[in-house]
Design a protein that fits this description.
Length: 259
């Protein structure tokens, strides 16, 4: 089984400026697609437009057709906490498809399962607004997973997570994607995480796609230098994983300004 996300001439403008420019890519899943690039490269803009929150030119097709709202789940970078809801109620909200909604036993089961997958079941009855930032971030991912989307769009979902929870989230996400034949497009700043968990890396700079392909093909010293304006070393850990070590900014070569 495979699933294909195809971008053709995908462009997005904001306030009359072209922010994402003519992206062409064919991404075969299931698996995680890491969108990497410096601040301002256009990662969030790309995800918001893929989610239908911003107008775009060109096309983004999932298995040959425009994704419908039932196919999609989008988690923006800054997600606000609803006042007074418990963790379980928050995740249940992810199941709302219609305005007239009744909670079925299947909804509760699915919400509890999503919490268990992300090791959050013990927090089910706690108020969301009294949890830590990282705990809230994981609850919002669970809320998106419970929709069982075929295209997940997650904007820096690991930004508030400790090392342990980063691993849990990305491992469980990979398992979900394989089980559901789904694709997750995930904005990530940590290139070592991208190298470890992504099937495909989209590397962006100033709204353009610099490179798209396997982590080993995309995350090279040369591309990192060009895109981020830093010298970097790529090491292989004893586990076989690639680790990207930033050594320092490049000065005096015209490559200092990353975005
Ligand atoms: N609402 C907006 N109106 C106009 N321009 C915007 C708006 N939001 C973002 N931009 C511009 O779009 C460009 C890309 O921003 P975007 O947030 O997509 O980048 P990013 O790669 O996600 O950055 P970061 O890593 O900092 O989150 C930036 O130059 C930014 O100033």
């Amino acid at each position: 089984m495979s699933v294909v996300l195809r971008l053709a001439g995908f462009s997005v403008a904001r306030a009359a400026h072209r922010i994402v420019r003519d992206l062409d890519a064919r991404i075969e899943g299931p698996g995680l697609v890491a969108v990497c690039g410096p601040n301002g490269a256009g990662k969030s803009t790309l995800l918001a437009a893929l989610a239908g929150h911003l107008p775009h030119r060109g096309s983004a097709l999932l298995d040959g057709r425009a994704p419908e709202s039932g196919d999609l789940a989008y988690l923006p970078q800054a997600t606000r906490v609803g006042a007074g809801l418990t963790v379980l109620e928050t995740v249940l909200l992810g199941r709302i498809d219609h305005l007239r909604w009744t909670v079925r036993p299947g909804d509760i089961r699915a919400a509890v399962e999503a919490l268990q997958v992300l090791h959050l079941a013990h927090l089910a009855e706690r108020r969301l607004d009294r949890l830590s930032g990282g705990q809230q971030q994981l609850v919002f991912v669970a809320q998106r997973l419970v929709r069982r989307p075929r295209l997940l769009l997650l904007d820096e979902p690991t930004s508030a997570l400790d090392l342990n929870r980063q691993m849990i989230l990305l491992e469980e996400l990979q398992a979900y994607l394989l089980a559901r034949n789904a694709i997750a497009v995930v904005a990530l700043h940590d290139l070592s995480l991208a190298a470890r968990f992504a099937a495909t890396v989209l590397l962006m700079k100033a709204g353009r796609l610099v490179s798209c392909g396997s982590p080993a093909g995309v995350l090279t010293r040369e591309t990192i230098e060009v895109v981020y304006g830093i010298r970097a070393e790529l090491l292989t850990a004893s586990s076989g994983q690639t680790v990207v070590v930033p050594l320092g900014p490049i000065r005096g070569t015209g490559r200092e300004a990353p975005a």
